[in-house]
Every structure is written in structure tokens, then in C-alpha cells.
Amino acid sequence: MNGKLGEVWVWSAIDPENKYLFPDFVGERKRKIGRKVLNEIKSRRKNTDDLLLIQTDGYDLYKELVIDAFATKKINQVKRRGEMVTVTAEMPENILFCMLQKKRDDFGNIDAIDVKVIFGNEDKILKVLKNHNPTQGINTSYIERSNLNRRLFNSRLKRKTLSFSKNYNCLVAQLNLQRIYANFCWNHHTLRKKYGIPTSPAMAIEATNHIWSLNEIFFYPISR
Q1: What residue ranges in 81-218 does DSSP mark as E strands?
Q2: Burial 152-182 (b: 16+ CB within 10 A, else e)
Q3: Could you tell me the CA-to-CA distances from 135 to 130, 139, 143 in Å, in that order?
Q4: CA triple 84-89-95, angle to 5 deg
């Protein structure tokens, strides 16, 4: 994109409780971009004493990023990919982290899913998940569903089509617009059932008190 970046990744994260999409970061699948995602999540925590459960797929870099963001003490460091990374660390008891590794057969179908609890213990993680949604165990279904929605409604993310994004700046602008619409304009069915009134993710986190229209988004004053 722009003749320089070539293939890029869209780093996304979601708060499954409130359906709120965190800001996207577009770039290489490397540590410096991943740190921005974790720092964004960390900065938005209202109470650092609350339990935080992070669920990801099996990409090994995620463990290093969680350690970088939340470790109270880094114990063992080695050089990897040209940088010093922490292999083991002391983590706060309220930081829970687990990973899901999908195994596929020769035809690309999911054959098995391995669950690894990295920080915390499985009983505490399952208790948190039960309080949130009794039908779900350890999973990444919320972000996967969000990614599917974004591909359905954003042709710049549709693979092997003429509309697939070829310009970095246009892709970032389109992702931002889509995320803002999802957070501020979307009358989310699950949130409506929970609160009894039409509710957007931004209302659920108390960032606004009403569902926005597109006019409000496009004409919202932005200070520089």
C-alpha cells in the first residue's frame, strides 16, 4: 500500500461485555504495533484492580505483548527477532490470559482446539466467563464475529476482489469510520436486552447518552 508497505495486518480488539471496539492499528504483524493495542486496552481500564481477561489465538507474540503491558517483574529475558523479550514474568493476580490454538486438517477444516492458560488459572477464568455468558467457555468468538461483520460491510477487507484496499490511508480512514459507526450508531441487540432501551456500545461504556446518527459523526467538531 502506497507502494511501500505491501501486505499489512489490521490489529483489532473488542470488549465483549459492552461490544465496544477498540481503535484499530494497521501495520506489520510485529511487536511495535502490538504494543499499541495492549497500551490502548491498558489506558482505558477504569479500575486497575478489576479482573482483566484477555483471550487470543495462538500467535506466540501475544504472550510477550501481555507481559510488556502488565508484568510487575520481568524475570528471564532472551534476544529474539533482534529485541530483548521476556520469557517469564510475575503478573498481577487480576490479569488472566489464555490462548486458543486451532488445529486444521489437510482440507483446512478445524480438527481440534487446544486451550492454554498462560496467566491465572482455568477455574478463575471459567468463573469470569460464566458470569458474563454461561453458554461460552474460553473462546475468541466475539472478535471473530466482529471481524466477519467488518468484512461483510467493508469491501476494502474482502479478499480476492477488485474492491480490496490498495491504499493505506484510505483503508485506515474506512476502518475508523466503520468502528465509530459500530460503537456509536449501532443499536446492539444484546445490549438492548440487557439495559431495556436501545443501546450502543458507546452508551454501555458511558461515553455518550444516546445513539448517534451519521450526521453527528460527520459534523462532530474535531479540535487540532
Answers
A1: 83-90, 95-104, 110-119
A2: eebebbeeeeeeebeebeebbebbeebbbbb
A3: 7, 11, 17
A4: 120
Q: What is the rounded CA–CA span in Å between residue 20 and residue 17?
A: 8
Amino acid at 43: S
pLDDT at 130 exceeding the cut of 70: yes
Would you place residue 3 in the very low, low, confident or very high pLDDT band (cuts 50, 70, 90)? very low
Q: Kindly report each contact of residues 115-124 with a partner whose C-beta sits within 8 Å and lies 24 or more positions away, as own/partner.
A: 116/58, 118/63, 118/66, 119/66, 119/91, 119/95, 120/53, 120/93, 120/95, 120/96, 122/98, 124/51, 124/96
176-215 pLDDT, tens digit each: 999 999 999 999 999 999 999 999 999 999 999 999 999 9
Q: Residue 71 and residue 144: Cα distance in Å, rounded?
A: 27
- CA 104 remoteness from chain centre: 23
Q: How many CB atoms sit inside 10 A of residue 45's CB?
A: 10
Q: What share of the chain is helix, strand, coil (3-state, %, to 5)?
A: 35, 25, 40
Is 21:146 a contact under the CB 8 Å cutoff? Answer: yes
Q: How much of the chain, in percent, has pLDDT values that exceed 70?
A: 94
Alpha-carbon distance of 9 to 201, in angstroms, equals 24
Residue 157 C-alpha cell reads as 477487507
